[in-house]
User: Which sequence fits this backbone?
């Protein structure tokens, strides 16, 4: 080989290459050390953060978070028992009410049957009078309905008249008499 060929040993002996190798090796070492330091710092600060969180929520005036969970579970169980007892009481009340309603229904059926029998025992003239009384009752009910409707319509007329007056007050007389 000629005089220009350099061996690997010549290349490593060059001060520039040695400086570059030292710089790269130093950078790698610093990066590795920095990584280890970061891991250690994160572990320490993570532990401190966990302790801080535990101090904030883990132990309160009512005890640790675990104790609070146990209390909540016990309260849920207690509430479920109370609710179950309440449901039984409600069901008992519903049964008593149903029995009372059934009793009232029986009484109403008996009274309805009696009224039917009474009506059938009336003479024709009495039935005619009863029919006329029912007609008067129906007419009276219709009269009452019409009175209520009339009151509602009177109120609506008053509202419309007030609205018309406000409309006129704003200068719109040309449309309204």
Assistant:
């Amino acid at each position: 080989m000629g005089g220009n060929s350099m061996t690997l040993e010549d290349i490593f002996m060059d001060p520039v290459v040695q400086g570059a190798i030292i710089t790269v090796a130093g950078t790698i070492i610093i990066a590795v050390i920095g990584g280890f330091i970061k891991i250690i710092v994160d572990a320490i600060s993570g532990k401190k953060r966990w302790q801080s969180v535990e101090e904030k929520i883990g132990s309160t005036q009512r005890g640790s978070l675990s104790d609070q969970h146990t209390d909540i579970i016990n309260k849920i169980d207690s509430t479920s028992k109370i609710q179950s007892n309440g449901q039984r009481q409600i069901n008992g009340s519903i049964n008593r009410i149903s029995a009372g309603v059934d009793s009232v229904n029986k009484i109403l059926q008996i009274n309805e049957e009696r009224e039917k029998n009474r009506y059938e025992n009336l003479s024709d003239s009495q039935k005619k009078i009863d029919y006329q009384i029912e007609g008067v009752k129906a007419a009276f009910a219709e009269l009452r309905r019409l009175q209520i409707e009339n009151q509602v319509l009177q109120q609506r007329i008053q509202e419309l008249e007030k609205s018309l007056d406000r409309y006129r007050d704003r200068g719109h007389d040309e449309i309204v008499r």
Notes: Strands lie at 59-60, 63-64. Helices lie at 8-13, 15-58, 65-120, 124-169. The chain has a mean pLDDT of 82.
